[in-house]
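Why does residue order matter? Because the sequence determines the fold. Keep that principle in mind as you read this record.
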Amino acid sequence: MIDKREILAIAHQTSLTPHVVEKDYVLGWMLAGIFGHEDLAESWIFKGGTCLKKCFFETYRFSEDLDFTLREPQHLNTNFLKSAFSEIAEWIYDQTGVGIPADKQEFDVYENPRGQISCLGKISYKGPVSSTHALPRIKLDLTNDERVVLPPVNAQIFHPYSDAPEDGIEVLAYDYTEAFAEKFRALAERTRPRDLYDVVNLYRNIEARPEPQRFMEVLRAKCEFKGIGIPRMSDLEPHRAELEAGWTQMLEHQLPALLPVKSFWDALPEIFNWLQGTIAPPLAAMPIGAGDTLIRERVVVLPTGSRGHSLIEMIRFAAANRLLVDIDYRDKQGNRSTRAIEAYSLRRSRAGDVLLMAVRADSGQPRSYLVDRILGVKPTQTPFTPRYPIELTPSVASHGTPVPM
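Structure:
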């Protein structure tokens, strides 16, 4: 098991609480255990918000649950689940030292509103920072009552911890297009804050955005299975006040900084236009200097002792969510000042310096900043409309290898 210091360091780097980081750590090992179990590995298909975070986009909201569609309905059985997760718990303890007490595993098998069997599981654990008095829990949402439209994929999850298996952790997951369509369908059905956040974030990841006609085919199949129509903007309008009222409570603990709900709601018309085939023209890339190279790696190589790693993650978060960020900067004359910027990309100069490419919010002028001279970073609540493609997030993860159904 990693020690408390590693959890605290990552919490500081991501501006999240240690308990949220610890849960992300345990979620990774829980996925390793599930997809290392011979009875579950080929039968359980990973989906939902945690799937998006762990399989596709690391710069994303943290999540708390594990959602699966099961190919084998007989797995929705309390005795089977208790037996399987007892074995998984023993394996995780042997690998990491994370305790998952057998008497703290609950499986509630029930009949869902469509008359089919589903299960809600609750798995308690003791990790590096959790209290022994009130153990935190991971929720499992298991169902066989779901139409899987596209072949699932084998995907490597993001698990940025020092004790990660050498070969990584591979899971069976929804295809990215299907995961996106499932989120869009969920937004139409329940209009919850995290669904709005997910749909807008997925749409904004232009590199991974599916072709709209193919996306609509999958979305139509998902909606037909649930007996609902294709979502329209007018369907969401009556729920806006309730969504805005729950925004802070549902999302605040999952993000480094709370985001303005209005900027997400205001993004919906463009998304619905995209569904109808109206595609905005692509933005021209920010000019690149002679000899400079674009940096898209998850881990950016910086000089020893640099504080830039934690600052880069906060800049990536702000850029991905279209928020201005205040940077505390010391120029080459030694003068220190704070300025609000639109962040766009990281470049490595011919001399080996790491540069943040940005636009000054006050003047609209492009600027480059040496990352080593950035002393502090603070995301603001002020949204911006990108002038250039945002290329700060790591390159889009492989969507995996399709698996025959």
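The chain has twelve helices and 14 strands.
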